[in-house]
Amino acid sequence: MGVSYMVRGRTEAECQQALDMLCRLLGAVQTTRPVNPGGRGWVARAVPGTTDAPDLEVRGAVMQ
Length: 64
What we know:
By secondary structure, the protein is an alpha+beta fold. It contains 2 helices and 3 strands.
């Protein structure tokens, strides 16, 4: 099991902005777009930017 990061925001834009900053500062790779499951706030995920990071071509089109 590997490390993953999650950010939360009140809006989709706020969530994406926080995720962009996290990825830039930590060298992480975004793995999901912001989503609002159940209407309880926006969340998105990233993983450390290493060779262990998921291959977005294989994992799916969440980032396309």
